[in-house]
Amino acid sequence: GAGVSQSPRYKVAKRGQDVALRCDPISGHVSLFWYQQALGQGPEFLTYFQNEAQLDKSGLPSDRFFAERPEGSVSTLKIQRTQQEDSAVYLCASSLGRGIYNSPLHFGNGTRLTVT
Amino acid sequence: TQLLEQSPQFLSIQEGENLTVYCNSSSVFSSLQWYRQEPGEGPVLLVTVVTGGEVKKLKRLTFQFGDARKDSSLHITAAQPGDTGLYLCAGRTSNRDDKIIFGKGTRLHILP
């Protein structure tokens, strides 16, 4: 497919479990972003990559959150020891980057995480 | 911390009415984008504005970037039920990187 793909679409985890969320960006897109979106709110920035380099992780809420993009393509957002406040939709987006600074973000449909 | 404040948070109006949504910040942005999001989907880009004072039109939607590049507005003429959705403004914080931050959104509901 031509768009950003995220999996799983829904994830239910018991408090304390670890989860891994996957993002397949558009082929050739250099920049990849993770956002967290609470119900009825705008997306909150978590982290972003340019190729495999994580350039900014200032939005990660705690050291339980970890993101990687080892080969500059697929990215995984991992949350360890999940807490109820982690329940949200996690959105991944990619863009051309590479100095095309006004390139738009292309979003996936998100992973809805529910921690019980 | 750079913040984007959107107002109003919620707006419910009758079909055919006009409306304006605002996006404000105390910070300067190198560019500003407007996205629309439907339930269960990711946001989709509507427009990018780059130059202070710039005005862009997309059918019944008019976007304006403030002269100082700190604020923007979205005006919809003759709103239709298909305009219902969450409208998000998003700013690029620097010309040197790709980081984009979002406002909290305006949830718009157009009544038929």
Question: How are the secondary structure elements laid out?
Answer:
The complex is a heterodimer of chains A (116) and B (112).
Chain A: E1 5-7, E2 10-13, E3 19-24, E4 31-37, E5 44-50, E6 53-56, E7 65-68, E8 75-79, E9 88-95, E10 106-107, E11 111-115
Parallel strand pairs in A: 2-11
Antiparallel strand pairs in A: 1-3, 3-8, 4-5, 4-9, 5-6, 7-8, 9-10, 9-11
Chain B: E1 5-7, E2 10-14, E3 19-24, E4 31-37, E5 44-49, E6 55-58, E7 61-65, E8 71-76, E9 85-92, E10 100-102, E11 106-111
Parallel strand pairs in B: 2-11
Antiparallel strand pairs in B: 1-3, 3-8, 4-5, 4-9, 6-7, 7-8, 9-10, 9-11
Brief rundown of the structure:
Chain A is mainly β. Helices cover 0% and strands 47% of the residues of chain A.
Q: In terms of per-residue confidence, which ranges of chain B show pLDDT below 50 for 5 or more consecutive residues?
A: none
Rg of chain A: 13 Å
Global mean pLDDT of chain A: 94
Low-confidence stretches of chain A: none
Query: How many angstroms does the end-to-end distance of chain A come to?
Result: 33 Å
Q: How many E strands of chain B? A: 11
Largest sheet of chain A: 7 strands, mixed
Interface with most residues: A-B, 27 and 28 residues
Mean pLDDT of chain B: 93
Number of helices of chain A: 0
The class by helix and strand makeup of chain A works out as: mainly beta
> How helix-rich are the residues of chain B, as a percent range?
under 10%
Shape of chain B: globular
Total of DSSP H or I helical runs spanning 4+ residues of chain B: 0
Number of E-type strands of chain A: 11
Rounded radius of gyration of chain B (Å)? 13 Å
